Amino acid sequence: RDNRTRCSVVISYGGKRVLVDTTPELRIQCVARGVDHVDAVVFTHAHADHIMGLDDVRRFNAIAKRPLDIFADAQTHAVLQRSFEYAFEEPRREQKVFRPHLVPKLIAGPFDLFGQTWTPIKMIHGDLTVLGFRIGNLAYCTDASFIPRESMELLRGVEVLVLDALQHKKHPTHLTIAESLAVVEELRPRQAWFTHMSHQVRHAETEAMLPPNVRLAYDGLVISSDLPIG
Questions:
Q1: Domains and CATH numbers, the chain
Q2: Could you write out the DSSP letters of every residue in 10-71?
Q3: Which of 185, 133, 194 is nearest to 167 (CA)?
Q4: Exposed (0-12), middle (13-18) or buried (19+): which is 135, by Cβ within 10 Å?
């Protein structure tokens, strides 16, 4: 559990799978975990470690035989469409290139995705505003150095919280483990999972220091959460 790839997650409910972020290791992650289809992709922000596997969703296009909706805020869409311009173009019949076929969907507030409301949670990541998401009683909040008060209020009542916790030492763009523990102490979720740890964080010895309701996430982790649909 000390060997970590970068952070992508699949959130499944109602027979649908939503992929959050497309890391450079996306293909390896999906093959290793048997992820053979996704129904939509949602992005937290446009840093390279969260978007550079986007080309690999072409396989999901081929399996589904349809375009794939891509949800992101305006600044993330601008980077995606500049970096992967070809993937957002309507394919021509004569083209023989195997590439993604993506449809941009703008996140400008809470949005419905397969019968479930996704509430964007604005967070600060160094100098950048990024998004976490609350889906029912689950919240996914990676890559943050500060969570504004209004965003903390949106997180109240979550039962399962997945939260950035890079390392012990202060960092300009990520929460430390101590800072994330303070967030957990205020929000009091039933279970918190820390993610996006650096390789300096050793899994077993760090978990031994944490309270019982806080654990470290790891590659291949499956979390169960009752998501009320509708």
A1: 1-91+98-108 (3.60.15.10), 113-217 (3.60.15.10)
A2: EEEETTEEEEE---TTHHHHHHHHT----SEEE-S---HHHHTTGGGGHHHHHHHTS-EEEE
A3: 194
A4: buried
Helix (H) / strand (E) element for 103: namely: strand 102-106
d(CA 10, CA 79): 22
Taking the C-alpha atoms of residue 205 and residue 225, their distance in angstroms, rounded to an integer, is 27
Stated pTM of the model = 0.94
Can you give the length of the chain in residues? 230
Exposure on the CB side of residue 229, measured as CA atoms within 13 A: 8
Pairing state between β 102-106 and 111-113: unpaired
CB atoms within 10 A of CB 48: 11
Cα separation, 131 vs 221, whole angstroms? 22
Q: Which two tokens stand for residue 208?
A: 């031994």
Q: Distance between CA 126 and CA 140 in Å, rounded?
A: 18
Buried b (16+ CB within 10 A) or exposed e, 160-199: bbbbbbbbeeeeebbbbbebbbebbeebebebbbbbbbee
> What pLDDT digit, counting tens, does each position of 114-146 carry?
999 999 999 999 999 999 999 999 999 999 999
- Per-residue pLDDT reduced to its tens digit, 22-64: 999 999 999 999 999 999 999 999 999 999 999 999 999 999 9
